[in-house]
Specification:
301 residues, OB fold (Dihydrolipoamide Acetyltransferase, E2P), 9-stranded antiparallel beta sheet
């Protein structure tokens, strides 16, 4: 060490400090949590919330509309992906309404015609005003052009409102059409098929069950402002209650909290494979510390 130059000594000290930091990062749960914290957010600004106990994912797929079951595309034991179609009830009449609403919405001829006429009368009114100032036309002609412009402008605005109503009608028909299809809410295995082809299905009837023994649902109650920071399909850093395991959880959904006015519940999905130090049995009922990006006025824990 005595034979080293001042430059060599500085480099040696820096290397030693980096080695200590690397060892501490491998051993400390807090360091592991820091590694999964978003780099652009200071650690002091992170909001920490505790979840409720984790539960194994078992999702009941219910009918969004009444109808007759016409197709079942899966059976018990089949592997399915999230949003995969499991089956559907009769939808021909609703599909016809949807197609008609789409055709009306996409037809722009009436709106374009009303716009062209309104713009043409605006030009006519401006030209007539110039002619009146030059004493080449009577003022009554200007008043007539102004009235025509107002009439066609009003027709154009009315057509715009009608087009907005057509968009609303299309979105309603599309929603009604989509409700006639059953989709897997999560990745998993079909563990129950409770409907039969040709049989009526009432609204909200339990039709399919999808289970996933490797995925756990973790609900977190948060203020609405914090929920806005957890966009659906993003991931959030989480740490298990034992303080030894950290990872990321998928944000599956954000819904209203029935127990709190203005509160939200973020439903997280935790995969057992991401927490190899914890046996799946121990994950059941386990609580997690969830890290959320801060928002103005949000509580910090």
């Amino acid at each position: 060490m005595n034979d080293l130059t001042p430059t060599d000594r500085s480099a040696f000290r820096l290397l030693s400090m980096n080695s200590v930091v690397a060892v501490w990062s491998c051993l400390s749960p807090l360091a592991a949590m820091a590694q999964i914290t978003p780099a652009h957010v200071p650690a002091s600004e992170i909001v920490r919330m505790e979840s409720a106990g984790a539960s194994q994912v078992v999702e009941k797929v219910r009918a969004g509309a009444p109808g007759v079951m016409v197709e079942i595309g899966v059976k018990v034991g089949d592997l399915v992906k999230k949003d995969q179609i499991l089956g559907h009830i009769d939808c021909d009449a609703v599909k016809l309404q949807l197609d008609l609403a789409r055709h009306i919405m996409e037809s722009k001829s009436n709106l374009e015609s009303a716009r062209s006429q309104a713009e043409a009368w605006t030009v006519t009114r401006e030209e007539t005003a110039v002619a009146v100032r030059r004493h080449k036309a009577e003022r009554s002609r200007l008043e007539w052009a102004l009235d025509m412009e107002k009439m066609y402008r009003s027709q154009y605005e009315g057509q715009e409102e009608a087009e907005q109503a057509q968009v609303i009608q299309y979105e309603y028909c599309k929603d009604q059409y989509d409700k006639r299809f059953f989709r897997a809410p999560v990745d998993g295995v079909v563990t129950a098929v409770l409907a039969e082809i040709g049989k009526p299905v009432a609204f909200a009837t339990h039709v399919f069950t999808i289970s996933n023994e490797n995925t756990y649902a973790v609900p977190v109650a948060v203020p609405a402002a914090l929920a806005a920071a957890a966009a659906t399909q993003s991931t959030l850093p989480v740490r298990a209650a034992d303080g030894k395991s950290s990872g990321h959880a998928l944000v599956d959904s954000v819904s209203n909290d029935p127990r709190t006015v203005g509160g939200k519940i973020i439903k997280l999905l935790v995969n057992a494979a991401d927490f190899p130090k914890i046996t799946p049995g121990d994950l059941l009922g386990m609580k997690f510390e969830v890290l959320l990006p801060p928002v103005a006025g949000s509580p910090r824990k």
